[in-house]
Design a protein that fits this description.
Elements lengths: L1 H15 L5 E9 L10 E4 L7 E3 L5 E7 L2 E9 L2 E10 L4 E3 L2 E3 L30 H9 L3 H4 L2 H6 L13 E4 L7 E4 L2 E2 L18 E7 L14 E6 L8 E7 L2 E9 L4 E10 L14 E15 L2 E15 L11 E17 L2 E18 L5 E20 L2 E20 L8 E23 L2 E12 L6 E13 L2 E14 L22 E17 L2 E13 L10 E14 L4 E16 L2 E2 L5 E14 L4 E11 L3 E4 L35 E10 L1 E5 L2 E12 L9 E5 L5 E5 L5 E9 L1
Parallel strand pairs: 1-7, 1-8, 10-13
Antiparallel strand pairs: 1-4, 2-3, 2-5, 5-6, 9-34, 9-38, 10-11, 12-13, 14-15, 14-40, 15-16, 16-17, 17-18, 18-19, 19-20, 20-21, 21-22, 22-23, 23-24, 24-25, 25-26, 26-27, 27-28, 28-29, 29-30, 30-31, 30-32, 32-33, 33-35, 35-37, 36-37, 37-40, 38-39
Length: 740
């Protein structure tokens, strides 16, 4: 009996003091495409229940506390075949197991799914196809000097007519102050890098980019031309991750990771330095760009969360002016924006409270005979409460908002200083209070309706302006839908000419007058179809009517009309990824029912495309194309045409009174064209037990050597056409990126 008791005690002691557990980690990829598989499940089949993990956005997983010994682990993913492998877990050590799953799509019947992204779960970056819309709008966007209406302000300054047409600066672009761009709820004017030397946005930073050409929900205030809602992703909380790149032209870096037990962070930055381009360019490098973004998330318990985002960018173009006396220097513009958003359960649903701030600053040097410097600053404060709840088959959305907008223009001599050199100092500002209610319901199995009403009360007005919105979507099949949407939009636009009055020398700034309020009506017809697995087609046709936009002959009754089509093809997964976006638009204007311009009609077309191909398991080729024809130009100042007769619809059509001869010189006629290409090879390894990817790449920017530019100066010696300033030749770039 004593022998049996001794043996039993030895067995129990051995079990209690057995070998320590091990750790299993690795990456799950698609064996078909080689891409990482997020949200794949990895589990130890023969262990206790719950010993499993879900891969993150890079396909990485970690299984802690796995008992030492032989085990069977299984990896599963919705559209891939399961994979099982037997492993031997060492005692108290780590084991790296990478797995590749074979693609096996699963067909399921049609269903209606509802989902809500909880705090900390929106860590997956947007696909390149989803950012195609932002890329096209980056090509269409003007530099910041036009975003603020600074060119128009300078034209209205007393005594600022140039001596001859050579004292005119042309700025490529249109749709200046009619759009609404939000970054995590914070308003930004010019978030795009219009020089095209880096991506419009860093793909690793954004979770999504939603573009509304028309039919935007009632929660959006403004957006006369379009609404672009940009959402950043949250920082990953499983471990600290870092990505970055450096080359002869630019550099970027991103770090994200956990912030305590209930939070996460992400910090990113980019910059264009141009150091490696010096041998290819005569003179100083003409473009500079830098931006920085930070986001922090904190879980408050339950479904409540707090999110803070900050963004800053600055872009500059050196104007290569060879006039006798130069004040050209550099034109620059940039944003500063930030938001704090709290999401909490409330009133049987969910509420999101937003406090946001955005400022925009631009400087424009103009003139050669008499160099001038013009500055503009815009500031906007936004408070909003957005609530939602379900009531049976209907989803309700409602909320309140408050906006404060302030704009200031200053101008003076580039050579002078003090009050005597200032000839323009004007400001405009206004408040807006808004409320909306919106609803979405499904009256039939294949019909979904969303409609709402927004009311905005602007400073100086006694009655609110109403903006009804409605959209109806029909599911034509399991792979195609048709949408029709309509709505009205109101927003502040730049100060009218009557507000831009220079005070006497040394006098204080006059009281801040209200801004102008413009209105737009939209009608949109859209078609969406999944062509093949992973490839989607979006086709939208639209008509828009603009009223109350300053700059049309100085008339308050002037109207502008725009119509066009937008085509998008996207593919975000597979061996080949990319997008194709094409926009064709026509613009015309009327003044009280009669022609308002010598040329009633203007048109433009924009093309943006990007293709990425996985040549081998670790080699990738990328190609980007940008093309624009008929892009409008803003000329400032115009000395040969009275200031009151030159304007901009904001969509690009110059308005000239019938009694005034057509302006001369004309704007640049050459279309915009850029082709960029890149080849990259990834090498994978481990440093101190951590997976490390190193990717050398070779990139060619402006491969066709087109001397496109943002700014132009008139030169009588070049067939009465403006010559391009600050141009770049073809640029070969060598660099490398990293990820761990």
């Amino acid at each position: 009996m004593s022998f049996v008791a001794l043996a039993l005690s030895l067995v129990l002691a051995t079990s209690a003091d057995g070998p320590p557990d091990g750790l299993v980690r690795g990456q799950v990829r698609s064996g078909t495409t080689g891409n990482p598989l997020p949200y794949a499940t990895v589990e130890v089949v023969d262990a206790q229940p719950g010993l499993r993990a879900v891969t993150d956005s890079t396909g990485m997983y970690v299984l802690p506390h796995v008992p030492a010994g032989r085990h069977l682990i299984r990896a599963t993913h919705l559209d891939h075949a399961p994979f099982e492998v037997e492993i031997l877990v060492p005692s108290g050590a780590q084991l790296v197991v990478d797995m590749a799953l074979v693609l096996r799509p699963v067909e399921i019947p049609a269903l209606l799914a509802r989902a809500r992204v909880r705090p900390g779960e929106d860590t997956v970056p947007a696909g390149v196809g989803d950012l195609g819309a932002a890329s096209v709008k980056a090509l269409e966007a003007t530099p910041g000097v036009a975003e603020l209406g600074l060119a128009e302000a300078m034209r209205t300054a007393p005594g600022n007519d140039p001596a001859d047409p050579s004292d005119v600066l042309y700025i490529r672009g249109g749709a200046a102050d009619l759009k609404l761009v939000l970054l995590d709820g914070a308003p930004v004017y010019a978030p795009f890098n219009v020089g095209g030397l880096v991506n419009a946005f860093e793909p690793e930073v954004l979770r999504g980019a939603t573009l509304y050409l028309g039919g935007a929900p009632a929660r959006y205030d403004g957006g006369l031309s379009y609404v672009l809602d940009l959402e950043t992703r949250a920082g990953r909380r499983d471990a600290t991750h870092a990505t970055g790149a450096v080359d002869l032209l630019s550099g970027r870096a991103l770090v994200d990771g956990p912030l305590g037990e209930r939070g996460g962070y992400m910090i990113a930055g980019r910059g264009v330095h141009g150091l490696g381009a010096a041998p290819l360019i005569s003179g100083a490098f003409p473009y500079l760009y830098a931006d920085a973004l930070a986001r922090m998330d904190v879980d408050l318990g339950g479904d409540a969360s707090l999110r803070a985002t900050g963004f800053w960018n600055r872009e500059a173009v050196r104007l290569d002016d060879d006039g006798p006396s130069t004040g050209a220097g550099s034109a620059y513009w940039g944003n500063g924006a930030g938001s704090v958003r709290a999401r909490v359960p409330m009133l049987g649903g969910e509420a999101e409270f937003t406090a946001a701030y955005g400022d925009f600053e631009a400087r424009l040097p103009i003139g050669r005979e008499r160099p001038l410097i013009a500055d503009g600053v815009s500031q906007r404060v936004r408070l909003a409460a957005d609530l939602s709840r379900e009531a049976g088959p209907t989803d309700f959305y409602y909320g309140l908002s408050y906006d404060r907008l302030w704009i200031r223009y200053t101008g003076g001599s580039a050579a002078g200083s003090g009050a005597d050199s200032v000839f323009l100092d004007a400001a405009a500002g206004g408040d807006a209070v808004g409320a909306y209610v919106d609803g979405a319901w499904q009256p039939g199995a294949r019909v979904r309706v969303r409609g709402g009403l927004r009311a905005d009360l602007f400073s100086g007005e006694h009655l609110p302006r109403l903006g009804p919105r409605i959209s109806v979507m029909w599911l034509l099949s399991d792979h195609a839908s048709l949408t029709i949407a309509a709505g009205q939009y109101h927003q502040y636009v730049r100060a009218s000419e009557t507000a831009l009055v220079s005070p006497p020398s040394g006098a204080a700034l006059s009281p801040v007058p209200p801004l102008a309020v413009a209105r737009a009506s939209h009608l949109l017809l859209g078609f969406d179809q999944e062509l093949i697995d992973g490839v989607r087609l979006d086709l939208e046709g639209f008509y828009k009517n603009f009223e109350g936009v300053p700059g049309l002959n100085g008339s308050r009754n002037a109207q502008a009309h725009s119509s066009g089509v937008d085509l998008w093809v996207r593919r975000n997964s597979g061996r080949y990824t990319g997008w194709l976006g094409y926009s064709l638009a026509w613009i015309w204007s009327l003044d009280g029912g009669r022609p308002a311009a010598a040329d009633l009609f203007a048109g433009r077309q924009l093309l943006s495309a990007g293709v990425g191909a996985t040549i081998t398991a670790h080699t990738r080729f990328d190609l980007r194309v940008g093309y624009g024809a008929g892009l409008p130009y803003t000329a400032v100042p115009r000395g040969d045409v009275p200031a009151a007769s030159v304007g901009s619809v904001g969509t690009g059509l110059a308005a000239v009174d019938d009694a005034t001869p057509p302006p001369s010189p004309t704007g640049p006629e050459d279309p915009y064209l850029r082709v960029d290409a890149e080849v990259a090879r990834t090498f994978r390894g481990r440093v101190f037990g951590t997976r490390f990817d190193l990717t050398p790449y070779v990139r060619v920017l402006n491969a066709l050597d087109r001397r496109d530019a943002i700014f132009y100066q008139f030169d009588r010696g070049q067939d009465d056409q403006p010559r391009a300033l600050a141009t770049l030749p073809v640029l070969p770039i060598v660099g490398f990126s990293w990820r761990f």
